[in-house]
Amino acid sequence: MTFEYMDELEVAVTDLRHDPDVRAVVLTASGNEHFSVGMDLKQLTSGAAARGGFEAVLDQRLRVLEMIEQLDKPVVVTMFGYCLGGGLELPLACHFRLAATEGARIGLPELDLGTVPAWGGTARLTRTVGRAQALDMILRARKIDGPTALAIGLVHELHPVAELKQRAVELAHELAAQPPIAVAGVLKAVVGAEHASLEDALRIEREAVRRCSGTADQREGMRAFLEKRRPNFEGR
Fold it and tell me: Is pLDDT at 163 greater than 90 in this prediction?
């Protein structure tokens, strides 16, 4: 994940956030060999100064991952081959993680480099799989496979690597067919209020209900239920 890659990803996520025609996102990598081993360490050591220094480089990566996590449309990511360091921290910011049944090597091996995960990996992994599993993976620099990732709740689904991207697209289409205003409300209530007090979380949920009330999609959903058919949501 080079400097240029992160620049392009930041622009892409910004465009996606403001594009009403996009209702779900799939994030993947080219080919079927590896997802990513994270930051380009050679580039980091030689070029960080031109980017404002190491702290500025990390700030951008944290900012882009937070933008992905806070999108008001669901993001599906595919995990296959090496998903290490930033190659796991990026998926941790996504809403749905699909992993390959075979060949995946998933982990945060930064301790082997004498450092710690720097793109939110400690926090997001702990919130996803719990303290015990996070400490086991990070402190031992463990690289787990897809079935293990599913067993500990790190990923949602497993599929053969040859079918993984197609399944991600299918899931994205399923999510895109849901009412966008309601989807955005759920994401804000679940992701945005994850660390809020119960009182604040319930308030955010109520606000999401109010935003859906009286919309064309809500009326369509009610009609479709009564008419025993699938609803056709249009995002209004």
Answer: yes
What is the domain range of residue 92?
A: 3-176
The β-bridge relationship of strands 105-107 and 157-159 is unpaired
- Report the chain's terminal Cα–Cα distance, integer Å: 37
102: tokens are 């075979």
* Nearest-10 Cα torsion for 132, 67, 105, 81: 170
The torsion defined by the Cα of 89, 40, 59 and 66, in degrees rounded to 10, comes to: -30
26, part of any domain? yes
CA-CA-CA-CA torsion sign (156, 85, 28, 73):
positive
The set of catalytic residues is 89, 110
Encoded tokens for 121: 């990996």
End-of-domain residue from the set 154, 176, 198 = 176
pLDDT tens track for 92-139? 999 999 999 999 999 999 999 899 999 999 999 999 999 999 999 999
Q: Average pLDDT, whole number, for the chain? A: 92
pLDDT in tens, 191-220: 977 777 778 788 888 888 888 888 888 888
153 and 191 share one domain: no
